[in-house]
Amino acid sequence: MNPGELAALVLQGGVLLPAVWIAARGAPRRRLIGLEFAGVGAIAILSVLAVSWRQDWSLIVSLVLALVTFPGTLVYARLLAGKP
After folding, report:
1. CB within 8 A of 55, min separation 6: which ones?
2. pLDDT above 90 for 82
3. Which stretches are transmembrane (predicted)?
4. What secondary structure letter does DSSP report for 82?
């Protein structure tokens, strides 16, 4: 296990698991925050693994996930806001 894989494992335990916990419980707005936090954690984990394994092409996965996560959050926020 190289240091990059160890860093990804620490990120998974320290960021992704609490984010999933927040996203699974509570009010809908709180779950949305947990979902966004989980997206950031997944992007960080994928980026660390791509750099650790020296595979530049897999950074595309992190980039696409970053580009898709933000509009998805905006859609969920719009649905939670209700009618104006």
Report:
1. none
2. no
3. 6-24, 33-53, 59-81
4. -
Residues 6+ apart with CB under 8 A from 41: 11, 12, 15, 16, 19
pLDDT digits (tens, 9 = 90+) for 48-80: 999 999 998 889 999 999 999 989 888 888 888
pLDDT of residue 84: 64
- pLDDT band, very low/low/confident/very high, at 34 (cuts 50, 70, 90): very high
Burial 55-84 (b: 16+ CB within 10 A, else e): eeeeeeebeeeeeebeeeeeebeeeeeeee
Instruction: Report the SS3 class of residue 53.
Output: coil
